Amino acid sequence: LGTELDHDSLVDLGREAQRAAGDATAVPTLSSPSSGTPPPSGDEALACVRAGAGDVLSIQARVVRLLSAPFEGTPAFVAIAVTDPSEDATDIQIVVVAVAADSCRFLDSA
Question: Has residue 71 got a pLDDT over 80?
């Protein structure tokens, strides 16, 4: 994972999460691939992601990883979330969403 993320990076993160879905019970952690100022708390970042993602990230989605990294030049929070299978489906759903760290504005999802 490089320090500058883009849409393809989100897709790659989703694929990695799908492969590791057996361990989807992980507690959300905030990591930063680049040095600099310390990231805000995981709770602040998670609240920002949920606010910015809107309907893209359902209330049932369980965030399993939070990243703090630039997304196409904008400081961002990136969340990898899983939704457990419904009664009609057998596969979990993986959603990767990026929001601006300063305004919680939605940037992209995969």
Answer: yes
